[in-house]
Amino acid sequence: MAKSDIEIAQEAHMLPISEVAAKAGLSQDMIEPYGYTKAKVDIHSLKDKPMKAKLVLVTAINPTPAGEGKTTTSIGLADAMNRIGKKTMLCLREPSLGPVFGVKGGAAGGGYAQVVPMEDINLHFTGDFHAIENANNLIAAMLDNHIKQGNALNIDPRRIVWKRAMDMNDRQLRSIVDGMGGVANGVPREDGFDITVASEVMAVFCLATDLMDLKARLGRMVIAYTYDRKPVTVHEIKAEGACTALLKDAIKPNLVQTLENNPAFVHGGPFANIAHGCNSVEATTTAMKLADYVVTEAGFGADLGAEKFLDIKCRATGLAPSAVVLVATVRALKYNGGVPKAELTTENLDALEKGIPNLLRHVSNIKDVYGLPVVVAINAFPTDTPAELEFVEKKCNELGVNVCLSEVWAKGGEGGEALAKEVVKLCDQPSELHFAYDAEAPIAEKIEAIATKIYHADGVDYTTKAAKQLKELTEQGFDKLPICMAKTQYSFTDDQTKLGAPEGFRITVRNLKVSAGAGFVVALTGDIMTMPGLPKVPAAEKIDVTPEGKIVGLF
């Protein structure tokens, strides 16, 4: 019987975090250990050190219930690159407790391509998310207190746009009424919760370049509007200093290790279908000062994660990937071709032909829209047949893109050496990142560019509410910011049931809001929720602890 991910992780031989830090080029006075196997890194002494690494972005096709293994591929690739003699560091997002206890699972990889300690990373870790949650909720408390104590800023309680946050999938809290119970208990109003990873504090945390930039971004966040519809910021309620105090340790990158004892940063974790979906700028830039190659991933499919990584994170920081790895599985492509999950283990070239346009569209976007070298990594499963693998390779080769079989789940870094060699070769090719749109263009033009160039939609429609918000945001001077599209991860469209590479559709924007601290305008499409719910059978039901304190059932 195959070992579970947690069994593999618990049997791993982990080095003391001090030794992992030394492998990364970090001296002992730069790390703050959190126990034996994880640490915060004080990067102050690296401030003036130049970035030297080549950046490798790992992205994927649209996710399916069959699974793609993007994080597993990222970890295995970093281990493989170290195996072939390339000093490589890994940068990943931290998992949210909502998906860990819900349906998606954790974010520490799988099989023999994992970051460890897996249980710690998937649960409380170093407390970053708790700090972000508390900062978010401090702002909410100070905002409501300001209104209760006289409302000097003339805030309209009906136009408060700041919600409380909790790092859990809890649909019961999406829409609530609070402030009940009389004058002493505040002003009654409609309210709600976001999951912590959807909080703008998380986005700000992951885009800040240092502590003072974090403080400035927190201060710029818009939390409400006045009776005459003027934006009210965190700075105006004097909350950014206290929030920065809560986050001063959290903003330091977390150092852990892979199963093969290679250094990895796991830091920050905004959702990719709601926020910008990539780990912190501080972690990425620090890794690029320490290593020769840095492997990082962007959340969900390339239409969401890679688009935001490139159009938001790279635009803000000046970073640019030297190569892109696009992860797919034969099973997921057959699912996109209409095969039910229960039948994905049977060879089906007809379904593969119907589903492969999803992969090819993502490949074309990376190559033709963004101008970046790309390789397709087929995450191997035992049920993949030679005919199916040959078919995928042929179709990708027709676009001038190579395909590598990745066997890192079963073999660790050894199973990714062919992919690693292809990535190194791509990194040596000259390339220049092109954005999907000009940030100086009007908001509607930028949204249109993403919808038509990346999703391949025929155009964009706006609800009456969104059209009004578009006008207001432009008048308020937020029209020069990049766009963060909130869209289903399962489809190029805003309808999650439309798989493959749909054509002849339009995108509907139903809500627009500014994330002024993060520095982007959020466009919500479809029925995207900022507070998910648990599934019928939550993963939490299988998680338990033995009398010895050993965690079981965690993947």
Question: Which terms would index this structure?
Answer:
555 residues, alpha/beta, 12-stranded mixed sheet, 4-stranded mixed sheet, globular
Describe the secondary-structure layout:
Layout: H1 5-11, H2 17-24, E1 31-33, E2 39-41, E3 54-60, H3 70-83, E4 88-92, H4 97-101, E5 109-110, E6 113-116, H5 118-122, H6 128-148, E7 155-160, E8 164-166, E9 176-178, E10 189-191, E11 193-195, H7 200-207, H8 211-220, E12 222-226, E13 231-233, H9 240-247, E14 254-258, E15 263-266, H10 281-290, E16 293-297, H11 302-317, E17 323-328, H12 330-336, H13 349-369, E18 374-379, H14 386-397, E19 403-406, H15 408-411, H16 417-427, H17 443-454, E20 459-462, H18 464-475, E21 483-486, E22 506-515, E23 520-525, E24 544-545, E25 551-552
Helix pairs in contact: 3-16, 6-7, 6-9, 8-9, 12-13, 13-14
Task: Characterise this structure.
- Helix content is 34%, strand content 19%.
- By secondary structure, it is an alpha/beta fold.
- The strands form 6 sheets. Strands 1, 2, 3, 4, 5, 6, 14, 15, 16, 17, 18 and 19 form a 12-stranded mixed sheet that branches. A 4-stranded mixed sheet has the order 20-22-23-21. A 3-stranded antiparallel sheet has the order 7-12-13, covered by helices on one side.
- The model has no long low-confidence stretch (mean pLDDT 94).
Summarize the structure.
It contains 18 helices and 25 strands. The two termini are 15 Å apart.
